[in-house]
Design goal:
The chain has 79 residues and is an all-alpha fold. It is 81% helix and 0% strand. The termini are close together. It is found in: Mitochondrion inner membrane.
Length: 79
């Protein structure tokens, strides 16, 4: 039974991580596109750099969530 709860928690955390990566990468791309349009004469590298920063932030948050889940601090067992 504990493995079922663990699997559900893992799936939920992984789903949050994937959503976080998508949202933060898209946000970084939007910010990079804005910087590119207004300051850098439509270069492409700020868009990709913004996406990279967003993915990096999301991966860091995901890593922190997975460590908390591993140590049982994110979702305490409900019994």
């Amino acid at each position: 039974m504990s493995s079922s709860c663990s699997d559900d928690s893992n799936r939920e955390s992984l789903g949050r991580c994937v959503c976080d990566v998508i949202v933060k990468a898209a946000g970084g791309m939007v910010i990079g596109a804005g910087v590119s349009l207004w300051f850098l004469r439509r270069r492409r590298w700020p868009v990709w750099m913004g996406a990279g920063f967003g993915v990096g932030l999301a991966c860091r948050n995901c890593e922190k969530d997975m460590k908390a889940l591993k140590w049982g601090m994110l979702h305490p067992p409900s019994e």
